[in-house]
Amino acid sequence: MALHHLAFRTHDLEALARFYGEVFGWEVYRQQGERAVWFRLGAGVLMLELAAPGEKEIPAGSKELFCVAMPENERQSFRRKLAGLQVDVEDETEFTLYFRDPDGRRVGVSSYRFEP
Known about the structure:
- By secondary structure, the protein is α/β, with parallel strands linked by helices.
- It has helices spanning about 15-25, 75-85; strands spanning about 5-10, 30, 35-40, 45-50, 65-70, 90, 95-100, 105-110.
- The protein has two helices and eight strands, in the order E-H-E-E-E-E-H-E-E-E.
- The strands form two sheets. Strands 1-4-3-2 form a four-stranded mixed sheet, with helices on one face. A four-stranded mixed sheet has the order 5-8-7-6, with no helix packed on it.
- Strand 6 and strand 7 form a beta hairpin.
């Protein structure tokens, strides 16, 4: 099995779409009016969807994680890109940088290689 899609709900679709587009350089794959923006993730899709009024926010400090692969040699230039976009690196390990999207979701880029 492989990833089909991830869906993130948000109360500010424009800000969240801008964040993922700017931070990762992803282009919009599909847009459904003011309700949803989709980005391609390899064979899968990241769907950003407008949350319903009253829908709960991301819990502050949540450790749930959305992480994408990044070659180790691109990590420092990515760190500089985050700084230029005024996105704070919240934590770091030997392989991974962690930061938050505008909704407070924990996001990471990692060069960790899983064993085949």
